[in-house]
Amino acid sequence: MEIPPQLQCLFSAEIEEDGESFVVDVPENEVQTGDLEAGKTYRVALFATESSPQQRSAGSQSTRAQGPPVEEGETRRVEIEDIGEQGDGVARVERGYVVIVPDAELGERVAIEVHDVQSNVAFAEVTERLPLNE
């Protein structure tokens, strides 16, 4: 499955029935992580959590897909796609997972080292500034 770069957040939630409607609560930290705003309309996709025979045969791949796609100490090359409220660079990697990169400029390509990984966001330091065409 291809995940579009416009993905703002990804999380697991239970669906509740409310009369003739169904409700999915979006955790506040997910709204703060992305550029989501209350009262605006967003496209929502739902995926079943029960694994199919094909998913079960994928084994460790599906386990890895459920956790953060980065690890502490990992190095990567990323593009800074946004600037956060605190002025830090924001990069998105697999599945729209957010990596906060202080001292990075919008549109800049940088090599980073991840130093803190949380369930919905990671923090990294710039190790090298890269040419835009690399």
From TrEMBL:
Residue span, TRAM domain: 69-128
Region annotated Disordered, chain positions: 49-83
Biased composition (Polar residues): 49-65
PROSITE patterns, A to Z: TRAM (PS50926)
Top-level lineage group: Archaea
Name of the featured protein: TRAM domain-containing protein
